[in-house]
Design goal:
Keywords: Phosphopantetheine, Phosphoprotein. By secondary structure, this protein is mostly helical. The chain has a domain at 11-77: Non-ribosomal Peptide Synthetase Peptidyl Carrier Protein, Chain A, CATH 1.10.1200.10. The protein contains 4 helices and no strands. It is elongated and about 75 Å long.
């Protein structure tokens, strides 16, 4: 684990993210320059984090977390994700006659 000087989160997004990280990673406090994976994060926790972020109205992509894993970097990406819109489709029901 790399040791960095602690710098408190700044702004609503960083503060919310820090709380999510602390809860998920079971650490006391998370600073702006803390690295998700150095704090004990891994791929399954990354997916869980992204889902918790969505529930907190903080849209981000899991790829951002892997490419830019510090709190400040993830916070900067919030809201810049293009949401994939999947059109709703209707699947026709088959009318099959039962054969005996």
């Amino acid at each position: 684990m790399v040791s960095r000087a602690y710098e408190a989160p700044v702004g609503d997004v960083e503060i919310k993210l820090a709380a999510l990280w602390a809860d998920l990673l079971n650490v006391e406090k998370v600073g702006r320059h803390d690295h998700f994976f150095e704090l004990g994060g891994h791929s399954l926790l990354a997916v869980s984090l992204i889902e918790r972020m969505r529930q907190a109205d903080l849209e981000a992509d899991v790829q951002v977390l892997f490419g830019h894993p510090t709190l400040i970097q993830v916070a900067a990406s919030v809201g810049k994700v293009k949401r994939l819109e999947v059109p709703q489709t209707t699947i026709p029901t088959l009318n099959r006659k039962r054969r005996i």
